[in-house]
UniProtKB/TrEMBL annotation:
Matches recorded under Gene3D superfamilies: MetI-like (1.10.3720.10)
Species of provenance: Agromyces ramosus
Pfam family, one: BPD_transp_1
SUPFAM superfamilies named in the record: MetI-like
Protein's membrane topology: Multi-pass membrane protein
Name of this chain's protein: Cellobiose transport system permease protein
Keyword Oxidoreductase: no
Keywords assigned: Cell membrane, Membrane, Transmembrane, Transmembrane helix, Transport
Chief localization: membrane
Transmembrane segments: 37-61, 109-129, 141-163, 169-189, 217-241, 273-294
Listed InterPro entries: MetI-like, MetI-like_sf
Length: 309
């Protein structure tokens, strides 16, 4: 910093290249070192072990029932060792013509990916505008956006269905994508994150260097928003993947998403829960793989917010 307190000429350039300014980077490194130096106690590991077991138990229970037969769930002497019918039950789900598994899987992947990408893009843009730009009515508009989160989804189902019916979009995968392209929670999340993580001095330094507002957003805002955007995209993808209510109403049974397709396994008078839970595990597997590959980014995003200085 200079004597007058203005940032140096390369202050914005360092962040644009993915590096924190030297003083902020030193403070962040010192705080991270202090956090890493704290050793967890015995009861912390006990508590984490209990949470881990509680989190994994539903998956093991589903696999236990899914690897048996129709009588397994009602057997009072049921063994806690999985049986050998899981692959057979999974094949029954995949090959069931009423379920249309592969079509439903593609619909879920396509809709969830498009919704997550759109929510991240629109929320980052809107969050940057609310956090760092000054325009008339910004605060009342942000309050209005946040207030929309209090409106239940069920309240808008009837008029929304009438609208898509008039447009002729019922039964089309776009009917579940378009209403979810923006998120009030995403706007609020990115607004709060960018407001705290990007100092106003960086924006002023970029403007002094001659950067336009779009370039400032791209080189500073997007770089700073990556951890929060990764978390928002991950959680939005999971929410869209698990959404059942609106797709069940607006989509045809011949072209469903995966949760709607698996509900058809329970439409008979006799429900074979071994097949149902095998299908549930198949639908959960892509999410587990997503968390495995995106877990590092998720943890880094949480730690970036925790040690931000």
């Amino acid at each position: 910093m200079t004597a007058l307190g203005t940032p140096p000429a390369n202050y914005a350039e360092e962040l644009a290249l993915g590096r924190m300014p030297r003083q902020r980077d030193d403070r962040r490194r010192q705080r991270t070192t202090r956090i890493r130096g704290v050793r967890a106690g015995f009861w912390v590991y006990v508590g984490l072990g209990v949470v881990l077991i509680g989190s994994l138990f539903p998956f093991y229970w589903s696999f236990l029932i899914g690897s048996g037969d129709a009588s397994t769930i009602n057997d009072p002497n049921m063994s806690w060792i999985p049986g050998g019918n899981f692959l057979e039950n999974a094949a029954t789900v995949v090959n069931d013509p009423a379920v249309n598994f592969w079509r439903a899987l593609w619909n879920s992947i396509l809709s969830s990916a498009l919704i997550a990408a759109s929510v991240v893009a629109t929320s980052t843009l809107a969050g940057w505008a609310f956090a760092k730009l000054r325009f008339p009515g910004s605060k009342p508009l942000l309050v209005f956006v946040v207030a929309t989160m209090a409106v239940p989804l069920q309240l808008g189902v009837v008029p929304l269905y009438i609208l898509f019916a008039d447009l002729g979009w019922t039964g089309n995968i776009g009917a579940i994508i378009i209403p979810a392209l923006t998120s009030a929670f995403g706007v609020f999340w990115m607004t709060q994150y960018l407001q705290q993580s990007v100092p106003d001095e960086l924006i002023e330094a970029a403007r002094v260097d001659g950067a336009s507002m779009i370039r400032t957003f791209w080189t500073i805002g997007v770089v700073a928003a990556r951890p929060a955007a990764a978390m928002l995209g991950l959680f939005t993808f999971v929410t869209a993947w698990n959404n059942f209510f609106w797709p069940f109403i607006v989509l045809d049974r011949s072209d469903p998403t995966l949760p709607v397709a698996l509900s058809l396994l329970q439409s008979n008078h006799f429900v074979d829960y071994s097949i149902v839970l095998a299908g549930v595990l198949l639908s959960t597997l892509p999410l587990l793989l997503l968390f495995v590959f995106a877990g590092k980014q998720l943890v880094s995003g949480i730690m970036a917010g925790a040690v931000k200085g």
